[in-house]
Amino acid sequence: MNTLTACAAAVLFAAAASAADPILLWPNGAPGSEGRTAPETMRINPPDEQVLSNINFPSIVPYLPDPAKANGAAVIVIPGGGHREIWITHEGYRVALATSEHGVAAFVLRYRLSKADNSPYTLTDSLADVQRAIRVVKSRAAAWHIDPARVGVMGFSAGGQLTAMAGTQADDGNPSAADSIDRLSSRPAFLGLIYAYLPPDFNFTAATPPAFFIFGDKDDVTAGEVQKYVQLEQLKVPAEIHVLSGVGHGFGIRPVNPAQVAVWPELFVNWLDAQGFLKAR
Q1: What 3-state class would DSSP assign to 76?
Q2: Does the residue 221 lie in any domain?
């Protein structure tokens, strides 16, 4: 095993060791997944990145910070994969580990995939998983020492599309729902749009939560991102944007990332702090 592979393996081991077991978003089965009991599948992108597919039981994997560092903020981390797969290591586990080390509780989402081969699911199902994840985290806020008013969402590529949708299609919950979790709001407190895919016909609204953008200038998937940032500015929604020179798509957190890319989690956390999300309330 060479030095780079050993380093990557060590990061993956640390990420896995810091996580709890997955928590099903719907313990009795997700609406729309009735009768679908096949387990998720996994392949490895060398040397060590896990890529998941065939998600029928959406869940979150918690990464809770050291209590001495915890600040009460939380983020749902939504990896990308073109809605066909979930690249859960470099856009999920490592991101959650890095975020939790800054005192922010993180929850990596395994969501149903609308473009996988023979998938019965739609983007509506994927969005329902995001919204349910937000509600589940808020429902356990006291046990996890989280401020329910500071639960945000961060997404990568296709996960960024779901993040943006969560920010514009939130609801206040159903006060008459039999399930107490469904009575809670699905509104995220903030959005982390990491090389997010935002379709040309997608538009933010004045009710959109504060948003953080970062992507590479060589990334064709994020064409139009600057216009979306300007749209938020015109709507008076707090937003920050970073464009990385000479960088393409899908960098996430990888041992091979150059310094100007590797710094992005710090930029995100600094933005959260500047917006007041890391201050105890």
Answers
A1: strand
A2: yes
